[in-house]
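Q: Sequence in, structure out?
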Amino acid sequence: MTDDALIAAARDAAKHSYSPYSNFAVGAALRFADGSLVTGTNIENASYGLALCAETIAVSKAMADGVRGGLEAVAVIGPGADPITPCGRCRQVLNELAQLGGTDPDILCVGPDDVRRLKLSDLLPHAFGPASLA
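A: Exactly. Output:
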């Protein structure tokens, strides 16, 4: 799967956002080495603290389906004028999944006219993960 296809999947996922409070629809798509693609979108809640981010939803879906290794790339898209990056919580959640397969995935932060490619380790240096508990 190409980066363009991954970005298109994130864009399609954002169309299913439930974001009536912020009107900030976010989509995420995860690409795995085995060819798996898992998407997620943000889901807000009237109790704001219970909102779920697109990346967290996608990771949860992947884990629930038994996809737990080989995370290669993540595309994240939002409605703003600039590319968005995963929030701190999502960086940690993505790190957990990545560490299960020993990867450092590319994070494609997508804006209307720009795609920023970063490594997860650049977004979350000195990350805490499963190996930290040994």
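The chain is about 30% helix and 20% strand.
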